[in-house]
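Let us work through a complete example step by step.
Step 1: write down the sequence.
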Amino acid sequence: MKKIVTVMLAFSGFICSANAQKIGKMKHHQHHYENGMMMKNLNLSESQKKQLKANHESYQKELIALNKNEAITVKEARDKKELLRKEQKEKMMNLLTADQKTKVVQLKKERELKHEAMSAKRLDRIKSRLNLSNDQVAKIKAITQTEHAQFKAIKENDQLSRTEKKEQLMALKEQNKNNFKTILTPEQISKMEEMKKNKLDKFRTK
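Step 2: predict the structure and record it as tokens.
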């Protein structure tokens, strides 16, 4: 099933690359909502809730201070924000009991399975719309497995700066698009571009 999710991520990047900013905001809001729902399922004590609230307020104040700091570059500000985000996550996990941490792992797994089921349905629709052959699907899966491993390696490489990660991920995304074009027929590429246009038009009207 993870293979299906990988393929869908690749297709999403190929279809929606021109509208990445708007889609990125939607994913951010969805991620924020899912994390909020996860916290509700942890049965936090009043003491934990108060500490989480205090940590969040402190985090927000530091972000505001960073945004007002004109003495640092944009890159420095982004790197500091990323560090603050990691520290905030560590503080949250340190507040949880062993049972609650186990529950977090369980809830993340349930969320992953839900996303996989949705991705499987989307893959079936794309396969039908583009009339992909089984051979094409197999090639796409093989390519995207490698690319997914590269994507994960870049994201988890703490030796890379935020800018270096961004540059490498953009290069991988471009490589991904080119790889797809070597598998699809000219007619399928044309259909893909039509799907991309329709999706962009739909977003613009919202």
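Step 3: interpret the result. The chain has one domain: 2-42+96-204.
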